[in-house]
């Protein structure tokens, strides 16, 4: 299926879109296989850090396009946590359907000005823009789980910049290896009421299934995940290597890693899009 626009993927997803980061081709294949298995749309994310690891955007972008073309569910391609304007411009030129400009570390006025400029340019190219307000904990060593996004500031930021989606700080933290984060659901509901664009939950690896589901019901529309899926992928590879210390063929340990990650992607997509149970009323017990 041809690459889908990010707003189309968001609209086509019953409740919340899973947005999963990939570094390796095997992880890309796992995300697409999992989405096809769940028969749900998905957003493939390539971060600025992943580009730095490979030394260039082109190889992974080309692989993503080829793999997405062979998939039968809607898939969007997103540049995640970009701080470099030249990388955003390259991603747009290479057919990415959305970009996330990360100016959360900048002072308010500078973040607004830079985000507005990038958004205006991206909109001319018909590219969807996500931004961030209220630095998410754990990014670049800034572990600050107490940071929260103010709803009034969020509404003003969206109005002043014209962004299409907003990542907000509500209690999660990047790079968490355990799923113990507590999301401020009242704040999510307040942000949903104040902000007219889809809300994005970053650091979702730190939230367990019940917390993620509650966050979606409270108003989150895009759920970003990386570390948890990396742990599933690496865990399966490690098990193979420990079981056979003489193993040298990477296909032998990357195949089960890819399989495990695909299964978790499918499970998460279904979990994120399970309808909220109807409230139990007194009459239901009669």
Automatic annotation (TrEMBL):
InterPro entries documented for this protein: Aldolase_TIM, Class_II_FBP_aldolase, FBA_II
A Pfam cross-reference name: F_bP_aldolase
PROSITE patterns in alphabetical order: ALDOLASE_CLASS_II_1
Cofactor(s) the record lists: Zn(2+)
CDD domains, A to Z: TBP_aldolase_IIB (cd00947)
Origin superkingdom: Bacteria
Identification of the protein by name: Fructose-bisphosphate aldolase
Species assigned in the record: Streptomyces hygroscopicus
């Amino acid at each position: 299926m041809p690459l889908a626009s990010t707003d189309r993927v968001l609209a086509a997803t019953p409740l919340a879109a899973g947005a999963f980061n990939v570094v390796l081709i095997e992880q890309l294949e796992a995300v697409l296989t999992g989405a096809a298995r769940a028969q749900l749309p998905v957003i493939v994310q390539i971060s600025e850090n992943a580009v730095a690891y490979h030394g260039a955007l082109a190889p992974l972008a080309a692989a993503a396009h080829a793999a997405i073309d062979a998939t039968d569910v809607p898939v969007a391609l997103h540049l995640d946590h970009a701080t470099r304007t030249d990388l955003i411009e390259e991603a747009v030129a290479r057919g990415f359907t959305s970009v996330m400009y990360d100016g959360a570390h900048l002072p308010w006025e500078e973040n607004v000005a830079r985000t507005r400029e990038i958004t205006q340019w991206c909109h001319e190219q018909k590219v969807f823009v996500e931004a961030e307000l209220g630095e998410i904990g754990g990014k670049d060593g800034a572990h600050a789980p107490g940071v929260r996004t103010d709803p009034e500031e969020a509404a003003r930021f969206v109005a002043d910049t014209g962004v299409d989606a907003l990542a907000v700080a509500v209690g999660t933290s990047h790079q968490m290896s355990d799923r113990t984060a507590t999301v401020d659901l009242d704040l999510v509901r307040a942000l949903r009421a104040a902000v007219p664009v889809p809300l994005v939950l970053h650091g979702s690896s730190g939230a367990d299934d019940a917390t993620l589901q509650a966050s979606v019901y409270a108003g989150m529309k895009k759920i970003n995940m990386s570390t948890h899926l990396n742990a599933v992928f690496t865990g399966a590879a490690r098990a193979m290597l420990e079981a056979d210390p003489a193993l040298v063929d990477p296909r032998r340990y990357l195949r089960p890693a890819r399989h495990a990650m695909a299964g978790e992607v499918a499970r998460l997509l279904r979990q994120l899009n399970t309808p909220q149970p109807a409230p139990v009323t007194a009459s239901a017990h009669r």
